[in-house]
Each structure stands twice: as C-alpha cells, then as structure tokens.
Specification:
The chain is an all-alpha fold and about 280 residues long. Helices cover about 70% and strands about 0% of the residues.
Length: about 280
C-alpha cells in the first residue's frame, strides 16, 4: 500500500534533488573543475549576497507571522459565535496565491493607491509613502500569504492543549502570564518550532513578490531570482542547480538550528493531553 506513495516521493523529490546535486558538480565548459560552480557562487557578490538578502526577508517575516498567529490561535481555539467566519476570513489569503496577492498590493500600495490616497486625504501624510519596488512591499506580501498557514498550524496545536491544565493552575494562584509561561508555552514549543520551520521555508522560496513588488536588481534580489537568471538568462543549468543546492543547504541550516534549540529548551510531551 505504501509503494505508490514512495514512488511519488522518489519521483517528485528524491530524484530531482539527486539530479540537481550531481549537476551542480558538472560545470559547463571544457576542463572546468568540479567545484567551479561553487567557487563562482561564493566569489561573485551578486550571487552570494542573495543569501543574506533572502534571509533578511524570510526571518523577520517568519518571526512576525508566528508571533501574530499565537494570540489569534488562542482567541479562536474554543467554539464561539462567529469563530468559523473569523477563521475563514483569516485563511482567505492562502487561497488567493502569491501572484494574485502581489498584483492586488501593487494597486493598493501604489503612490496613488488606496492606502496613500486615504492617508493623504486624512492629513496623516504630506507625501505618498514609497511601499513598492523596495523591501517593504515584498515583506508585506509575505506577511499576508504566510500568516494564514502559520495561523492554521498554531490553531491545531492550541486546540490540543487541555484547558483544565490552566484552570488547575489558576486555582493554585497562577496569573494568566504565569499560566502561559509555565503551561502553554512549554506545550507549544514543538508546535512553534515546526510552524516556524515550515513558514520559514515557504518565505525563503519567495519569487513572484520579489519580482512584482520589490527591486529584483537591488534590495530584493533573492536567491530564487539568481537561480532563475542562471537557468533562463545564461542557460547554465549546472550553475542554476548549484544555486538551488545552496538555497536548500541554507534552509536546512536554519531548520537544524531551530530544531536544535527546541531540544535544548524543552524536552517533554508534544501535546497537552486533551481527551
């Protein structure tokens, strides 16, 4: 029964990774050394700087998304009137896709868009804010598209915590802050780390937003743009594979650090014993 699933994983993930890994060590050109692609990547600022620019986008947005998802998940973890409606509104951006969100923000954040015109008419601004073709437009797009995913992940973890634990702590004199710090937070550590890792991987792969809302030749020239240029502008598939391998390695390093911190900070059950 597991053979079809294994074949899908091998065909869609394992084989492409192995192919790209081998291709990265077969640079184009005669008599090229097997490490030539990696030497080029780490010797050209326009290539290796993309790693820092992508991290500068992905890490703050991921932290903000996870940080915002936690209180919303706590507010909506118990059944109440309007809970389904509010949850639906929060996850709608996930159904729109990154390209559609980016196109909408191009109209909303433009110098003559709704946001700037509203702020100017209210007298809150003297001149339009510059929110396009820079860092902030891309960051806002990643925030909008990444928050629903982080929210749904955290909601599944918060609903798995037995509410009687907090009530028992309250009878012993624990304040709401102490309840969160001593009960909820330890039980949420596994969920926080997994949500952070998955949200980070999603944000690190940013491409449409960086092109449509950012400055693809400047501040938002992320690593995915570098891979695209190698593949479709220079037609150097081997170098494109190298950029992809560096991209994957960077993600693995960040994920490994986060998972390591989880093991260091807390070792205990991954659920709250509900039910």
């Amino acid at each position: 029964m597991i053979v079809p699933g294994v074949l899908v994983i091998v065909g869609l993930f394992v084989y492409p990774f192995i192919y790209g890994f081998i291709s990265s060590f077969n640079p184009q050109g005669e008599n090229a050394e097997w490490l030539a692609n990696y030497q080029r990547f780490f010797s050209e600022p326009r290539l290796y700087e993309t790693v820092g620019k992508t991290l500068w986008l992905a890490l703050p947005v991921t932290i903000l998304n996870v940080g915002l998802a936690v209180p919303f998940a706590f507010m909506l973890r118990t059944p109440s009137r309007g809970q389904r409606l509010l949850s639906t509104l929060l996850v709608i951006p996930m159904t729109l896709g990154t390209v559609l969100v980016a196109e909408g923000l191009m109209l909303y954040l433009a110098p003559n868009g709704w946001l700037n015109r509203s702020l100017l008419e209210l007298g809150l601004l003297g001149s339009p804010l510059r929110l396009l073709n820079n860092y902030w437009g891309v960051a806002l797009s990643l925030l909008i598209t990444g928050f629903p995913f982080a929210f749904m992940m955290m909601l599944s973890y918060t609903t798995g915590i037995d509410p009687t634990l907090a009530r028992a702590a309250a009878t012993l004199g624990a304040s709401p802050m102490e309840q969160f710090r001593r009960i909820y937070l330890p039980l949420l550590v596994p969920g926080l780390t997994i949500t952070f890792c998955l949200t980070f991987v999603q944000a690190f792969a940013v491409f449409p937003s960086a092109v449509l809302l950012g400055a693809p030749a400047g501040a938002t020239r992320v690593i995915s743009i570098a891979a695209y240029e190698m593949a479709y502008e220079e037609y150097n598939w081997s170098m494109a594979s190298t950029v992809a391998m560096v991209m994957g390695a960077t993600q693995l390093v960040i994920v490994g650090i986060v998972l390591g911190l989880r093991q260091f900070s807390y070792r205990g059950p991954v659920v709250g014993g509900k039910g």
